[in-house]
Amino acid sequence: METIVEQLTKYVVKANENKQALCIRGGGSKDFYGNPKGLHDSKLETGPYRGIVDYDPTELVVSARAGTPLNELESLLSEHGQMLAFEPPDFNGTATLGGCIASGLSGPRRAYTGAARDFVLGIKLLDGQGRILNFGGRVMKNVAGYDVSRLMTGAMGTLGVLLEVSLKVLPKPESERTLCFELPVEQALETMRRCAGKTLPVSASCHIDRRLYIRLSGIESAIDAAHVKLGGDEFGDSLSFWESIKNQTHPFFRGNKRLWRLSLKPTAPPFSITGEQAIEWGGALRWFAAAKDYDATAVRAQTEKAGGHATLFRGKDPNIPVFHPLPPDLLKIHQRLKRQFDPAGIFNPQRLFPEF
Amino acid sequence: MQTRLDEQFQNTPQGREAETILRSCVHCGFCLATCPTYQLSGNELDSPRGRIYLIKQLLEGQEVTRKTQLHLDRCLTCRACESTCPSGVEYARLLDIGRNEVEQTIKRSPIDRMLRFALRKVLPNRSLFAFVLKSARLSRPLLPERLQRMVPAQPKIRQNPPQANHPRRMLVLQGCVQPALNPDINHAAERVLDKLGIALVDAQQAGCCGALAYHLDAQPEGLDAMRRLIDAWWPYIANPDKLIEAIVVTASGCGVMVKDYGRLLKHDSAYAEKAARVSELAKDIGEIVAAERPELTRLLENCPAPEAEAIAFHAPCTLQHGQRLDGVIESILQTAGFRLTRVGDTHLCCGSAGAYSIVQPHIARQLRDNKIAALTRDDPAIVVTANIGCQMHLQSGTQLPVRHWIEILDQVLCGQTEDRFP
Amino acid sequence: MRHANLVEAFQNILPSESVLFEPEDLRPYECDGLSAYRQLPMIAVLPGNEAEVIEILKICEAEKIPVVARGAGTGLSGGALPHADGVLLSLAKLNEILEIDPVACTARVQPGVRNLAISEAAETYGLYYAPDPSSQIACTIGGNVAENSGGVHCLKYGLTVHNILKLRVLTIEGDVLEIGSEALDSSGFDLLALMTGSEGMLGIISEITVKLLPKPETARLVMAAFDDIEKAGAAVANIIRAGIVPAGLEMMDKMTIAAVEEFIHAGYDPDAEAILLCESDGSNEVVANEIEKIRDIMHESGAVRIDTAHSDAERQRFWAGRKAAFPAAGRVSPDYYCMDGTIPRKHLAEVLRRIEDLSLEFGLRCMNVFHAGDGNLHPLILYDANRSGELEKAEAFGARILEICIEAGGSLTGEHGVGIEKLNQMCLQFGDAERDLFHAVKAAFDPDSQLNPGKAIPSLRRCAEFGAMHVHRGEEKFPDLPRF
């Protein structure tokens, strides 16, 4: 019987011959994300290729197939007191490991423990010519060859099909507590900044609806000490609050508005364009729900000035590319890399940039 | 590191010694980080590792030119690299061998030769140097401003030291340029040791320690000066009736040289033993005072605490890297109640380095200015050091007084409050 | 262009002392920290600013001349080994710290800035730069990025790739790329990760923005001595199993302890077969808690002596011993060959036993220093380059060690890079297709393969030749080693 990998390979080889576009899809939890143009191309479903390949808690490494549902992976880790420290969103609960790495999205803990790309140790990749390639490995440190594994993180599947991923995992904190402060945006940013310059056990921060939430993680005594230092009230429903931020089920994210994801220098001043905003990651991530007649060019210009980039995360606009356009010299490198990995341009065409 | 020494060096003592040193270097490059000249130039050739390579190339029989000599000349011999080297490479010794070899092969320009000759003849000659210095001081007002600053001012000479007669006796090195530039250093040492119950003895015939000539490409001349000094000291050392406990050196630059006599003269059968004994006896004034700490602490109880002015301490390379006496003097000063300011990059040379400031004025000035910036960052009232060369060199670049630390300890201990910090 | 014309072209844009072209001047540049490999470059240039670097690259591009970048030359894989027909581009003079932003906790620096100099400059603000390779006193941040350097604290704080935000990269084609951003991510592919560890083969880095961290409130170190290296290995696994991620977790074997003690007098147990250094840092509460747990685990794992550093000075001394371990080998042996394989930690005891066997087989001593926390082995093979045949023997020994690491599911290099020395083993770790893709990645940045050509990624032909040489004796190697 043909294995799943053989099937996937066959699809790719054929698509490569026929220059036929493929839409790589795991659980479909992020169908909304990226330029929508290719969503109706033929699907290359990675969901069936699932399962844990190797997990040894004392090595702090887990390897799993791309189609493994995130929640399955996370509950296995949880049984051993470990976690994916970048706290990836799984949105509607169908997210897979492959999509998680391909989108490169990280959750509330990102600013404090690292992003998806920081925990990627190795990958197995199916490239545009149907070759199966292994990069990186299952060890913490590996500088043999170029870091192709991390290059795949956030590439939105445009460079190849992820088959397997090895990730570094971390022990779960013993305890967590969320502090809550009623603060206007300027002061909230100021408090987030103060936390960044100190060794406090902060594991998440979010300013939303005029309230600043700070999550502390670690041993109880350290949390107590930090609580005394920071003040603020203990917020009761810590777990579901951070879930709602991570998976965007919080009322702020609901509705059909155009939701921008602004990634910028954490010390940038509050956004001055009219609209609602929520702040995460110690100020480095701002969610911006635009008012009806807003100027998208101004959003991008202001983000650029703040040392970052703006993504139209939800709510499409046919005239606006989802991801922040690249300067020409960088675009040139991107296009060349794309040609090397996927010469026929079959993988998720235009999902990332309209140019490829 | 692999070596393939040229035949002519394979069987000489220097060649063999050089090879052993070269072999101990593993080319890790840690020394680059603490080398003052590499910090300025960023050129491997101006780093210890680069110079080791240049010397290796020379000893392996490759053709070398004036350029190799230039890069070896640029070394301050501060030996910060030796403090940093985890492999224990005796860099300064290798450099001596390399410099000597280059000197045989490469002819210097007439001007260069004349300058070096003059320095070797004038500086170590106490009376000649005193005369030159006096003339310079007299003509100082006539000189352009930049040169004016290079001529050290006449220090104020205070009361003559007591003629002490303690059972504990130590020889003191007068040195060559120090008595003319600042006789008060040894006077202060004498007063402080007197309080501690130690008498200092001066050997009349004693002259320069030989460091100047030795490091100015005239190693035989330097060795001769060493032998002369040993001859002058020996009657005192060998006298069983009036035992000499130690040889006190108040300039760390001379101290490091005297401590090295034993090694440098070990192949000279007539002097090897005496030289070893002299090196054994040689002590920096800091070591002597530190050894008397209980008595010093007791004496200090009866002295008014020094004014709360902050002092910046500059540790001469010959003290911290050459003699490995890091922290000794700092701790004495703290015991005496002084507040030491924070100084960055303490391991870096000030650029004085014997005659270096004269033969390599450009680099020396940059290093001096960097050093002064590092020393004065915390706003000290005075800079103190432990070597006459550093003192003069630093003074030429700052309005702040630069003193020898024994002078300020003397002021606290012996209650000399007039002309506190001139 | 003829040599003389080329020299003249460089002299037109650089001060004359910054263009070296005679063997006498070039010799000290013939190798980096791996002095077993030596090659005189055609010309070495020492630019003082980015504009000069750009001009140099223009000339090299026009003449299609290879360019090899060099920082402090402390690399241990020959990554900065010059090219005989190429220009050696020293970036040591670009050593300015351009900006420290204490609020955003970032520093913008030139590539020639020393790793430790960043932390020294940031200290005023209570901040520091986390990756601390043992050569941090001397190695440059540009070289760190090129090699993706680690250090003794990378289990908790990550490698260079985790601690940089932004790069300015000059391509051989004359573009100036801004890669990464001051934000936590950027639009498009993660070129920042691709550049990090690319061994100077994709572009010339002219500016780096690094992340600074607040200095931990406190740090404490436990030194545990074991009479059996296997027990030490088990202690490492037990610490991780207990949910502790130590700031540093290092192992040294008996010979290393002896070599280091002579220089540093760190206070290690000279009778131990292995010692572990385990550091905890963070808030007072966390550290007190972790240190207690660590001591307990060490005890339960059979440590014969457990010391906790009583002062920061003592802690620094414990670390100083570890950081000086490589060069201290110079006290035991005239030459050493440092390996850099990584393995899954669980195979430690097995791999160390293999190394011991090989040591007997080759008749060369081997010291073992080990980043135990992240599975990075540094066997130091001691040899004497002046004895004919010994270097070759050491190389063969080293190659066998790397092969064992690869078979154990590890990698041939954890942090030193492939450079020139591990090219053959790259043929074992990667297949033709992967290597083919590596070459393709290089071509995307450097179409004519002018930047550090011949390093890091072996040519397909080289691997074919190596494969032919590398006879597997028709039997499975190390049959008692579990298959991975």
Explained architecture:
The complex is a heterotrimer of chains A (356), B (422) and C (484). By secondary structure, chain A is α+β, with helices and mostly antiparallel strands. Chain A is built from eleven helices and 17 strands. The model of chain A has no long low-confidence stretch (mean pLDDT 94). Chain A is globular, with a radius of gyration of 21 Å. Chain A starts with a helix and ends in a 15-residue tail after the last helix. In chain B, strand 7, helix 24 and strand 8 form a beta-alpha-beta unit. In chain B, helix 4 crosses helix 7, helix 12 packs across helix 25 and helix 18 crosses helix 21. Chain C is an alpha+beta fold. Classes of the chains: A alpha+beta (356), B alpha/beta (422), C alpha+beta (484). The interface between A and C is large, with 86 and 94 residues.
Which secondary structure elements does this structure contain, and how are they paired or packed?
The complex is a heterotrimer of chains A (356), B (422) and C (484).
Chain A: H1 4-18, E1 22-25, E2 42-45, E3 52-56, E4 61-65, H2 70-79, E5 82-83, H3 97-103, H4 110-113, H5 116-119, E6 120-126, E7 132-136, H6 148-152, E8 161-168, E9 170-171, E10 175-182, H7 185-196, E11 202-208, E12 211-218, H8 220-230, E13 233-235, H9 238-246, E14 259-263, E15 275-280, E16 285-290, H10 296-305, E17 309-314, H11 328-341
Parallel strand pairs in A: 1-2
Antiparallel strand pairs in A: 3-4, 4-8, 5-9, 6-7, 6-8, 10-12, 10-13, 11-12, 11-15, 14-16, 14-17, 15-16
Chain B: H1 7-10, H2 13-24, H3 36-41, H4 48-59, H5 66-73, H6 80-84, H7 91-105, H8 110-122, H9 126-139, H10 145-150, E1 168-172, H11 178-181, H12 184-195, E2 198-202, H13 211-215, H14 219-238, E3 244-249, H15 252-258, H16 261-264, H17 272-281, E4 282-284, H18 285-291, H19 293-301, E5 310-313, H20 317-322, H21 328-335, E6 339-340, H22 356-359, H23 361-376, E7 382-385, H24 388-395, E8 402-404, H25 405-413
Parallel strand pairs in B: 1-2, 1-3, 3-4, 5-6, 5-7, 7-8
Helix pairs in contact in B: 2-7, 4-7, 5-7, 12-25, 18-21
Chain C: H1 3-13, E1 19-20, H2 23-26, E2 43-45, H3 50-63, E3 67-70, E4 87-90, E5 97-101, E6 106-109, H4 115-122, E7 127-128, H5 141-147, H6 154-157, E8 164-170, E9 176-180, H7 191-195, E10 204-211, E11 213-214, E12 218-226, H8 229-241, E13 248-253, H9 254-264, E14 274-282, H10 284-300, E15 305-308, H11 312-323, H12 325-332, E16 335-338, H13 348-362, E17 366-371, E18 376-383, H14 390-407, H15 423-429, H16 432-445, H17 460-469
Parallel strand pairs in C: 2-4, 3-4
Antiparallel strand pairs in C: 1-2, 5-6, 6-10, 7-11, 8-9, 8-10, 12-14, 12-15, 13-14, 13-17, 16-18, 17-18
